[in-house]
Amino acid sequence: MHAPAVSTNPASLDDLAVGESGVLSSIDLPEGDANRLMELGFLPGARITAARSAPGGDPRVFRVDGTEFALRRDTARKLRVEAGKEGAP
Amino acid sequence: MSGLHGCEGCPVAALPITGATPRLVALVGPPNSGKSTLFNRLTGLRQKVANFPGVTVEQRRGRARLEGNHREVVLIDLPGVYSLIPRSEDERVTRDVLAGEMAGTPKPDAVLLILDSTNLNRHLVLAAPVLSLGLPTLVVLNMADELADRGGAVDPEALATRLGVPVALVSASRGEGLEMVREFLSGAVGLPPSLDLPVLADIPKCRQWAVAMGDKAGYSQPAPPVWTRRLDAVFLHPVAGPLIFLAVVVAVFQTIFSAARPLMDAVDHAVSASGAWLSAVLPASALKSLLIEGVWGGVGSVVIFLPQILLLFLFIGLLEDSGYLARAALIADRTMRKAGLQGKSFLPLLSAYACAVPAVLAARTIENKRDRIATILIAPFMTCSARLPVYTLIIAAFLPERPLLGPFLGTRAAAMLGLYVLGFVAAFGTARLLKSSVLKSDGAPFLLEMPPYRRPTLRQIALRMYDRAKIFLRRAGTVILGVAVVLWILAHLPLSGGKMPEIANSVAGTIGRLIEPFVRPLGFDWRIGIGIVMSLAAREVIVGTLGTLYGMDPKAGSEGLQAALRHDLTPGGAVALLVFFAFAMQCLSTVAVVRRETGGWKWPAVQFAYMGLLAYSGAFIANRLVTLFLG
Ligand SMILES: Nc1nc2c(ncn2[C@@H]2O[C@H](COP(=O)(O)OP(=O)(O)OP(=O)(O)O)[C@@H](O)[C@H]2O)c(=O)[nH]1
Ligand SMILES: [Mg+2]
What we know:
heterodimer; A: SH3 type barrels; five-stranded antiparallel β-sheet; B: alpha/beta; Rossmann fold; 3 domains; six-stranded mixed β-sheet; two-stranded antiparallel sheet; binds guanosine-5'-triphosphate
């Protein structure tokens, strides 16, 4: 497996192309929703890779820490990422 | 392997091994970590297991089968949780049981914390809140087989030392490493640890703690599941994915029809041969008539459908155990969104194809209350397995079999598929209606864990089909038999001069004539009317009822149920009957479970009335249209 490419300048998870990864910086969601995402590993500082999406492009699947989760694109847009920096493995 | 991996120096005490009350041990863990698999191993029960998160939504207790002489141990299987702060009804069950706040369930004495060892960094986070409960705990690292296969490793002893509680590395599905679990249950108990746990509200801190614990226990994460990635490349492919989805659906229907046929014919043959034999050897009496007309005619005509129902469950089992279902939910999310719901509602709705009762329960996994109610309200529209006998009977009686797509799809399977679509469309429309009015909501974001694909095991599937067969036959032996006997009695009363009346003059006939004006506009006669009333108890009862009623008719009895129906029912009436059964909520168990899950009579009453109205008007229109077209 090759190392995931790093997106040039993504703003949110939804901007990551398939195979690209980014480091999560913040979650713009109500506290309860954000906490659930964090419990699943969507923590600030975590490296998240975009995997396949459903046929039609929505929802998308993201890989964090070896597990894949499906999120709708409008949710994925609320998860901000910064590219390039080394994230937690 | 034997002996608990206790931590050096941390106290291990043996609790008194006898006592009046059983020791209550709760199985806690994240969804899909194998809690129910372990529960089944330890108790010998058959709690439902499947490869997607959110299978168990209720607590289920069972006595552990342990060797030796000691206090009785009762295990509680619980719904999976990501933390002890519940966001949905199923998660609340787990929290309440652990807090000792669940009515009827005392606070557990100990905990088995079941974690997926292939996902340890994430799953170990749950150890912090669970250990802080202060109960004796055994940490069970499950899926040891998968961990080893994919080249990961962990040292349970080192982890035990760090956590201060014993740790076992097991494979619940293979039954490996369970000695330690049994030993824990039989009495050796790690005392509650006094450990430096992270502040629970600080999720990043908890995560750091978990990763640090894993590191110190020499945890090396397994390689990504290669096959899962490969299969997803196909099943989630933009073009191939939906095509495969369709192909799977078509294959299921065609098989249910064509492959089940020889088996059904065999059962049919056995039923009629034994009936004929019985009627030859028994002397003429009321008992004989009851046996032949009531039991053989009523129950026999339902039992014929057993092979078909088992085949349906075979397919459902394969889909659920392989992990494809989670992908199907992903593909379906777009459609669900158009109905105002989300992909998570799709999983309960899919299980409604088996039966609406577990589907209504499974809706507990939906976080948003209004989404949950909407899902409960539309679940009975999905074509449950009890409708299968009714559909099959009518379709086989009225529609000649002809190939449509070569050998892949015949007319009958296509008609069946059409009825499933009809139910889905009704569900979809109703959801839209509800979600754009009374049950409007923003909803929690759609969030679904994709489990790795797993190979369904023959044992698992076989056991499920066996359980299904038992349930089906038990129903045939209780509800359907009961209704058949009552009906037979009603059809032979009142006695006049010691002789049984003509059926038209019997109590059943009189009741039938009372019902007939109401069902006439739909194209039904009094027999179907009685069948519909009786099938309020359960849908497949109508098949048994018609079997009994026609079995008593000397004219119809000899030609068989299908021929008799063709004789009595116009094509318009046949289509109307199908539409009626597609829409009507004829199932008391569903009404009861909806009342329980929504906490009152309001929603089940609304649902029953709405579905009844839809069924009646739908059947009326269908009868008119078909009659119009066919002259
Ligand atoms: N390879 C492997 N698979 C396992 C093992 N234990 C369970 N499974 C599989 O994991 C999946 C989930 O098992 P369940 O027992 O339903 O999990 P659960 O924790 O009860 O899940 P929920 O009720 O949804 O919380 C099923 O497909 C099991 O066959 C194991 O030790 N090894
Ligand atoms: Mg379970």
